[in-house]
Write a structure and sequence with these properties.
mainly alpha, 2 domains, 2 strands
């Protein structure tokens, strides 16, 4: 019972463990700090600023590289067949936006999550457009042009409206989330 009360006290704001005695006199707080995990709700910088972003970067890159075998196979075959190339320019526009956002935030993890994706998306678009029929080619071209125009408009708007870095970061964060939808 005492151990349960001690753990509960670590999780509370008071940080005081109460014994099972009826008098409810506080006992000294058990100080249990770990460099990896803090139980009292405080964020541990090692976890939140390095481990989680590193894992997220790996997952993001895994997602962008997941299309690579399919595009390589399409290139070998020389035809798109039933393959829908429209996600390729959307990946390009998405990664371009998040890369700009990473520069504004000065966040290396966001940059490392999207720079490879932008390079791969560029290669994906260039590769699939060589094999696309006129309908698919028109769809890829118009999507690329629209997303590029949106990014140019956002950048020009941010500059000419005189937005500060925090405001530009918000504009690009919102824009990138809209592209993801």
């Amino acid at each position: 019972m005492r151990a349960v009360l001690t753990v509960l006290a670590l999780l509370t704001e008071s940080g005081v463990a109460f014994s099972a005695r009826k008098s409810r006199e506080p006992t000294p707080r058990l100080i249990a700090k770990s460099k990896l995990l803090q139980l009292r709700g405080g964020s541990n910088e090692l976890v939140t600023k390095f481990i989680v972003p590193t894992v997220a970067t790996g997952l993001a890159n895994g997602m962008f590289f997941s299309g690579l075998p399919e595009v390589i196979n399409l290139k070998k075959v020389g035809s798109l067949g039933d393959f829908n190339p429209l996600p390729m320019p959307i990946i390009f526009g998405n990664c371009l936006g998040w890369l700009i956002y990473s520069f504004l935030k000065r966040d290396i993890f966001i940059m490392l999550s999207n720079a490879p994706g932008l390079l791969l998306a560029t290669w994906y678009v260039l590769t699939v457009t060589r094999m696309a029929d006129s309908t698919k080619l028109a769809a890829v071209e118009s999507t690329m042009m629209a997303l590029t125009a949106v990014h140019i408009a956002a950048a020009v708007g941010c500059i000419f409206l005189g937005l500060d870095n925090a405001q530009m970061t918000t504009v690009y964060g919102v824009l990138c989330n809209i592209i993801l939808l």
